[in-house]
Amino acid sequence: MPDVGFTNLFAVALIALLAPLLLGLAPRLRVPAVVLEIVAGIVVGPHGLGLVDVDLAVQIVALLGLAFLLFLAGLEIDVHQLRGQVLRLAVLGYLVTLVLGGAAGAAFSAVGWVHSALLVAVTLSATSLGLVVPVLKDAGQVDGSVGQFTIAAASVADFAAVLLLSLVFSTEGGSAGERLIMVGLFAVLVVVTGVVVATAGRSRRIGLVLLRLQDTTAEIRVRAAVLLLVAFVALAAQFGLETILGAFLAGAVVGLVDRSDDSHPRFRIKLEALGYGFLIPVFFVTSGLRLDLGGLFADTAALLRVPLFLVALLVVRGVPAYLSVRTLGVRSSTAAGLLQATSLPFIVTATQIGVATGLMSPVTAAALVCAGLLSVLLFPAAALALLRRPDDAARSAPEAPRPASK
Is residue 2 a part of any domain in this protein? Predict the structure, then answer.
């Protein structure tokens, strides 16, 4: 057996267990588990108490966690809802986001915080769809106009942000033109694979086999999904693209071809159990282990970047939500803007690429991640408070008829 230690992985897995357990024991502490996972990683990591290191075992599982995180994000996208006015507003909103993000990036670049204004724009342009959907469900808005608009905007933003990050800032090298060609070829392979998978799924014989094996120890649907994930990640690497693009598109393909929940209702639950039960928490804890806050807290001027990045995130992703103000109203548009400005997993990924490519300093990366942590803590709670307030329509409801005068 290879000489790979599991002590650090045990510590990371223990943190992954204790974070949600603590929240379960303290239900009034409304903090997403991902925040505790990253913070705990910072505390026990090399830049904190120095109790846990990122060794080979932790690196491998964390890499799988990142892939599965993007896979499940792609799985959340419902392409059947991306149509009509909702799609037009989502696309227009993302274009506004890029303009505002470019302006913010240019300002941060002018003061020497970053070396690429476009990288800042892309980093600030995504929305954590996996964090937004539960908030909409809690408010009973996931199927309403607010939920549909927010989910559509988040889906477009996540897909576009992953694509831009892979196309423009890939660590694999090559010019932007070469990567554009590779993205085109990769897209063709993705489409072909999706058609093949969909065609095979309609085969009666294959369908009966899948039905017979899906809930046995074979777990055939889960194995097929994992195979597709690994295949797309490997293909993306071969094409010189970021592996996150392959993982994201693998999830989108599975979500597109897996339309029926009647014959396999537990399929997605099993995928989420594999991802959120083990792999993804390891990625977030490891992100905390790698985060160096020493330089950030050592300099007051550097620490001021955190609130400025938070405001930039709110403006860049929140303002475009007001494109729907005529349909949703001011309060609901404000809530949608707060939800759209909730972002953390993509910020963690983008800042790691920024540091690896030399376009972002570790201090700036730490400040951006801290801003993302604050967005997860503050924005969904504020949005939920707005969505739970009485509707304006309720106030303007017709009054009960008065008794006739005698």
Answer: no
Please name the helix (run of DSSP H) or strand (run of DSSP E) that holds residue 41, with its range, or none: helix 33-44
CA gap 389, 393 in Å, rounded: 11
Q: Which domain holds residue 309?
A: 7-24+31-389
Query: Which DSSP category does 245 fall into?
Result: H
Burial (0-12, 13-18, 19+ Cβ within 10 Å), 263: exposed
The model carries a pTM of 0.78
Give the Cα separation of 299 and 309 in Å (integer). 16
Please check whether residue 399 lies inside any domain of the structure. no
CA-based max dimension of the chain: 95
152 backbone φψ class: left, alpha, beta (φ>0; ψ -120 to 50): alpha
* DSSP state string for 340-395: HT---HHHHHHHHHHHHTTSB-HHHHHHHHHHHHHHHHHHHHHHHHHHHSPPHHHH
The residue type of 234 is A
What does 68-130 look like in DSSP terms, one character per residue?
HHHHHHHHH--GGG--HHHHHHHHHHHHHHHHHHHHHHHHHHHTTSBS-HHHHHHHTT---HH
Residue 13 lies in a domain: yes
Total domain count for the chain? Answer: 1
User: The domain that contains 247 carries what CATH number?
Assistant: 1.20.1530.20
Give the model confidence (pLDDT) of 232-280 as tens digits: 999 888 887 778 888 888 988 888 887 655 678 889 889 989 998 999 9
Compute and round to an integer the Cα radius of gyration of the chain.
22
Query: Could you tell me which of 67, 69, 122, 179 has the C-alpha nearest to residue 359?
Result: 122
pLDDT, tens digit, for every residue of 196-227?
888 877 788 888 888 898 889 999 999 999 99
Task: For residue 320, give every residue at least 6 positions away whose Cβ sits within 8 Å of its Cβ, in sequence order, or none.
Answer: 92, 93, 94, 96, 97, 100, 153, 337, 340
